[in-house]
Task: structure prediction
Amino acid sequence: MGVWGSRLAIFAAACAVLCFVPLVRITPISGMSNEAPFDPSEFASTFWEERLIPAAADSHSAAKVVAALSKDARAADEAYGVRAGVGRGFMLFLQGIGVVQESDGPGVILALDGGGVARLHDRKVFGATIRDATGLLQGNEAPSSREYNLIASELDRLAEQRAIAGLADVAPGDRLRFAGCAKVVSAAGFQPPLEVIPVLVEAE
Amino acid sequence: MSLLLIRRGVGGLLLGAAMLIGCAKQADSIGSGPDNDAKPNDGPGKIAVVVSTLNNPWFVVLAETAKARAEDLGHEAVIFDSQNDPATEASHFDNLLAAGYDAVLLNATDSEGSVVSVRKAKGKGVPVFCIDREIDADDAAAAQILSDNYAGCVELGQYFVKTVGEEGSYAELLGILGDNNTSNRSEGFHSVVDSYPGLKMVAQQSADFDRSKAMEVTESILQGSPGIDAIFCGNDAMAMGAYQAVASAGAADRIKVFGFDGAADVIDSIRDGKIAATAMQFPKTMARQAAEFADEWIKGRRDFDQKIPVAVELVTKENIADYVAYGAKE
Result:
């Protein structure tokens, strides 16, 4: 075969190796598929309509939660609280019916059927209380913590538009059905009345 | 000449092919999951605490608490200082993996750059538990225990509006650009403040979470905008630096300074009426949790949530009596 023959054989072998192990391999990057980019606004709207509002009917009784909080906030946390991660605080998802006592203070004060008082938040909403209080939404449903936070902001806007806007014209004596979310920073520091961010407000 | 080129070319191609094969094998190894078949070990393990810097008291508390908790649980623990340098951090990983550590508690230097080291550890079956600083991967660390920076800054933003008012001008000092804590804190703050069109941000600059840089940046901002009402800072070290510059300019009674962390000097400053507010992180809680997770891993547990948020609490002159440096009064 000679020197040239052996060199050509080596070259052919190298070509054969490169056929199976090419120097450049094009691999599709995961996440670069034809999927539409994550839309926090659309996600929040779908979550609101398909999961949050339907679940409101099964949320805790506001009168029972308020009574438990006034008796022993730590026990109320154990019975009704939802936690997102590690911390002293807890959140609540609750519903009830009440009569408006005041509507010109820092929120709408309701005397609850079944006893107790709650305050419905009637201003701009910030933070992740609505996102986290139901326990229905998990962090891995968003691509990253940033999008997860944007979902919280979108849910806040929906609460302002779809629930809080309905509090603008209420007056003392009005009877309201509501569902909402609340945050207690620490059981030891809880001060009534419980402030609830409404996600649903209807005249009863 | 041509023969030599062909010889070198063929050799190079074969060498390149061999290297590619080798790299592919290594990539498969790195990309695989943690060693879930590792046998549980009831004996003491070796736990590395890799911290971004020990040049900031907050991180000293974080690292020393993690080390102490790991030792309480019966393990050997060593702190590695990355000096805010991703290359130093990578070198620490090479060394600790070679030395046979069983778990790593990582306070990362770089949310993107640190991922490679975390994957390297995972490929060798060594779990990494991230503390305080998030890395940009959900499939590399065994778990990430992180302050809820966004929620903390939402609380700070609301207090900012309450104390500064719905009209005025302010500056913002950002932390290290590209760090997730920097963006999450800034976005949480702006999710509130930007809802008030009367509040105008006249300057937004990075001071790298550093006290000295914050003082310099604030001095520069005050020269251009002496009439600002407030400065929002992405951590307490920058808040202290900003306050020094504000005080030197004779504006301490007029310009409100806000921080984030719950460091000792800022807690004292809130008590003294110098700093308006901070958001209390709980470094000891995060560090203990990470050490306990590492202990559980060594003993066989594998089912950890990827991200565990740790609540952050607003600290102001109204509730300062409830807090001490780096935490709440028990």
